[in-house]
Amino acid sequence: MGEKIILLYSGGLDTSVICRWLAERGNEIVCFAGDVGQREDWVALKKKALASGASKVVVADLRERFVRDFVFPAIRMNAIYEGRYLLGTSLARPCIAQAMLEVAKKERASVFAHGATGKGNDQVRFELAAAALAPSLKVFAPWRDREFLAEFKGRSDAIAYARKFKIPVKATLAKPWSSDENLLHISFEAGMLEDPSARPLADMFELTCDPRKAPNQPERVTLAFHQGFPTAINGKKLTPAKLLAEANRLAGRHGVGRVDIVESRYVGMKSRGVYETPGGTILLAAHRDLEGLTLDRDLMNLRDSLIPRIAANIYNGYWFSEEMTAINALVEVSQRQVSGQVTLELYKGGLIPIGRQSPSSLYDHRVASMEDDGGAYDQTLATGFISLHGLPLRAQARRAALAAKDKNRSPRKGR
Ligand SMILES: Nc1ncnc2c1ncn2[C@@H]1O[C@H](COP(=O)(O)OP(=O)(O)OP(=O)(O)O)[C@@H](O)[C@H]1O
Ligand SMILES: [Mg+2]
Predict the structure, then answer these.
(1) Domain 4-164 - what CATH class?
(2) Does pTM top 0.85 for this prediction?
(3) What is the per-residue pLDDT across 188-200, written as a single tens digit (0 to 9) for each?
(4) What CA–CA distances, in Å, run from 31 to 51, 61, 148, 399?
(5) Domain 178-295+337-358 sits in which CATH superfamily?
């Protein structure tokens, strides 16, 4: 080939083998790793990339960018996939891709490569992000390449190849599942989780304690928002990444944010995933709660109707699409008044909102009150309101009654 290739490098066996394999074919390899908050030995990762034949390694600290530009905007949209998945990996992929493409441009790379498999969502997310941001960059996906596949049929082939080229292989026993971590979540899939009826092992979880072992006292947490974006936790103003880390800590110790689902991958199959999203779970719940106080009913309805669409766009890799730009414009307007704070109580894996306040509240105590409202709301008007809204229902009921009468009359009787 003889190209300059930027490789999305995660420091594992697969991407190290891919790096060496591409270098052996006369390509120049720049490894790119994105720090989105996963616990990783970055010094060791850099060393390993160089030992695997990279001419250069770039590690980008994306923690603030990830939370500010991807996680918080998604929470602001109440994005949730198939009603339950908070999109932790789906949001990290376009962030990593965006930063990688900036480096690819600077390095004048002509190809980017990744180690995502041909069965998953991540290949789609990386490549659709590149299609939108760097349409002329070529892609090489070794797990879809016949020559590469012929050489690497299983893990043992990769280990043998690594040994041959003195790439360090971690001696630790492979866990019976695979995981992906960032500041928003840890995901677990594959291995023993491939049986959707099998309960995950208790010691798999890393960010949340077992709800049964959580403190016996509930804990209050107050989350503040400005125009839909989280700004403070328990009165402390923090940067997005620090705020999310603190939310993770508080929610995690009460066992909040575990999700175990079977989801629909974009490439077609059903897949079982287990997620821990402690901080994201409480931020989403608090944001939703604040909207109850501040967001107009019909605007909420319109925005809510878009949530499945928004979530599918994020899940399927269309973060950088024109459609998302249009949706963002609507969300932007919807969030202008979503400022204030919400207090939640965390207790044994659950959360309960217990109070909220906002300078831009739509709540009118006089109107809502069951006490004497001094004429703020004329109850007698409700008669006409209900009567007119009942008009179509009465028409339907009359039609149904006529049809029933017709049916009772036997069609032959009259002849
Ligand atoms: N933090 C990251 N920075 C750059 N690229 C990444 C990062 N995380 C993942 N990738 C890319 O995404 C691909 C798919 O990631 P995935 O997590 O499925 O596999 P992996 O990280 O290679 O292996 P593991 O199963 O050990 O996590 C990787 O092969 C790599 O190309
Ligand atoms: Mg990984």
Answers:
(1) alpha beta
(2) yes
(3) 999 999 999 999 9
(4) 11, 14, 19, 70
(5) Argininosuccinate synthetase, chain A, domain 2 (3.90.1260.10)
